[in-house]
UniProtKB/TrEMBL annotation:
CDD domains: ASKHA_NBD_HK_meta (cd24019). Keywords: ATP-binding, Glycolysis, Kinase, Nucleotide-binding, Transferase. Catalyzes the phosphorylation of various hexoses to hexose 6-phosphate. GO terms for cellular component: cytosol; mitochondrion. Pfam families: Hexokinase_1 (PF00349), Hexokinase_2 (PF03727). The keyword Glycoprotein does not apply. It catalyses: D-fructose + ATP = D-fructose 6-phosphate + ADP + H(+); D-glucose + ATP = D-glucose 6-phosphate + ADP + H(+); D-mannose + ATP = D-mannose 6-phosphate + ADP + H(+); a D-hexose + ATP = a D-hexose 6-phosphate + ADP + H(+). Belongs to the hexokinase family. This is Phosphotransferase. GO terms for biological process: glucose metabolic process; glycolytic process; intracellular glucose homeostasis.
């Protein structure tokens, strides 16, 4: 079984090749002549400045990044913030319906929240975290490139999502909105809080909202951490999906077409989930990766994300366990209906199994019993844990190689990586695996650390709006 798992184990030679290919993809995404054909798009976010600690006030934030949609009310005062929020479900029929249905749902949730919080009379700015690949045309305009995370709403790809939100609000008749900025999710992680905007008005009858920014959760993660740590230059999401953003010199971002506000920098949303869509990662993809890809709503797309993110990691482990069971290497060749059911082995199982202390298998046995495998032996538990370790270690090492590439590209002496996402938060060894592997690839003389973000997709949206307000 260990011999058959070798294809899931990546040595440094394979990871070095990954780094070289990833850097080439980044440079292609940044270049004006090569951007259109680039797989890793490196979208300009139009965020030029990080928080400086002077941002204060009360603001709204919207966060759409998966099956749940959040509306938040955040108050920021120097180094302190208070937050109230409400989660609204995004039903399956809305995720797969029309764009009009989706944005009508968002507008409805926003209106309900504002009424419940009794903030109809206040003047508030708003940041919008939209955690899908966006081609930004400015801080308040973002064109959807493609859907990910199981969404497939019609009539949205190729259109400005801020305009679609404005149209939905106009259809209600009780909300009026003026968009100031739109950002991607990684930018939100970076920014984290917003400034009170004197141009933003919410009336007694008509709700008038000044949207300061649209962003994705990686940008929010970066901003959220940069609010506390001035060395934070990279935002990473490693949860249901995966993406990264980083601070780039404006001179290298050839598609950036706005005046320099003084920093000389601009945040770049890499959209690295698509890395490998051109076939450059075939040398490390396995039969499990190909099987997963065939059964997604977007086959052939987001291949990098499908190797590393929480949405797929449990299924990679299940496919390996299923294969080895049918080959007689596990459970005496006797499986179960649950084990052979697609997506039934959850990613949280991987984390729970690896949380067992060495030599004990309490969580593993409970999970196997839940899957109808009460006949599992101790050796089966050892083997299942090893499979999970191979899958999660591969994910951590790929993420680490990508982050090391960005750290080396920035080239500063000290760099903090702001990180958010359920996989990083809850897997017992992901942080340590990343620290160890990044250390092997960063250039000599560079000191780095990893910082857990505090609600980048929520507070980060506010911070982007805050900085935008401060600049204006």
């Amino acid at each position: 079984l260990r011999e058959k798992c070798k294809e899931l184990v990546l040595d440094n030679k394979a990871l070095k090749e990954y780094c070289d290919k990833f850097l080439d993809n980044i440079n292609r995404g940044l270049g004006k002549k090569t951007h259109d054909e680039a797989i890793v798009k490196c979208f300009v976010t139009y965020v030029q400045d990080l928080p400086n600690g002077t941002e204060v006030g009360k603001f709204l934030a919207l966060d759409l990044g998966g099956t749940n949609f959040r509306v938040l009310l955040i108050q920021l005062n120097k180094n302190h913030f208070e937050m109230r929020s409400k989660i609204f479900a995004v039903p399956q029929h809305v995720m797969l319906g029309s764009g009009e249905q989706l944005f009508d749902h968002i507008a409805d949730c926003l209106a309900k929240f504002m009424k419940e919080e009794k903030i109809m009379r206040e003047k508030l700015p708003l940041g919008f975290t939209f955690s899908f690949p966006l081609m930004q045309k400015g801080l308040t305009k973002g064109i959807l490139e493609r859907w990910t995370k199981g969404f497939n709403c019609s009539g949205v790809i190729g259109n400005d999502v801020v305009k679609l939100l404005q149209d939905a609000i106009a259809r209600r008749g009780d909300i009026q909105i003026s968009v100031m900025a739109i950002l991607n999710d990684s930018t939100g992680t970076l920014m984290s809080c917003a400034w009170l905007n004197r141009y933003c008005r919410i009336g007694v009858i008509d709700i008038q909202i000044d949207v300061c920014a649209i962003l994705n959760d990686t940008t929010g993660t970066l901003m959220s951490c940069a609010w506390k740590n001035r060395f934070c230059k990279i935002g990473l999401i490693i949860g249901t999906g995966s993406n990264a953003c980083y601070v780039e010199k404006q001179a290298n971002a050839e598609l950036f077409d706005e005046p320099d506000n003084g920093s000389g920098n601009v945040l770049i949303n890499t959209e690295w989930g698509a890395f490998g869509d051109d076939g450059c990662l075939e040398y490390i993809r396995t039969e499990y990766d190909r099987e997963i890809d065939r059964n997604t709503v977007n086959p052939g797309k987001q291949l990098h994300e499908k190797m590393i993110s929480g949405m797929y990691m449990g299924e990679i482990a299940r496919l390996a366990i299923e294969r080895f069971t049918k080959e007689g290497l596990l459970f005496g060749g006797k499986g179960s209906e649950a084990l052979f059911t697609r997506d039934r082995f959850y990613t949280k199982y991987v984390s729970e199994i690896e949380s067992d202390p060495p030599g004990t298998f309490t969580n593993c046995r409970e999970i196997l019993e839940e899957l109808g495998l009460k006949h599992a032996t101790e050796q089966d538990c050892i083997n299942v844990r090893y499979i999970c370790e191979c899958v999660s270690r591969r994910a951590a090492h790929l993420v680490s190689a990508g982050i090391a590439t960005l750290v080396n590209k920035i080239g500063e002496k000290r760099i903090t990586v702001g990180i958010d996402g359920s996989l990083y938060r809850f897997h017992p060894h992901f942080h340590n695996l990343m620290m160890e592997k990044i250390s092997e690839f960063v250039h000599p003389g560079i000191v780095f650390d990893l910082m857990l973000s505090e609600d980048g997709s929520g507070r980060g949206a506010a911070l982007v709006a805050a900085v935008a307000s401060r600049q204006r």
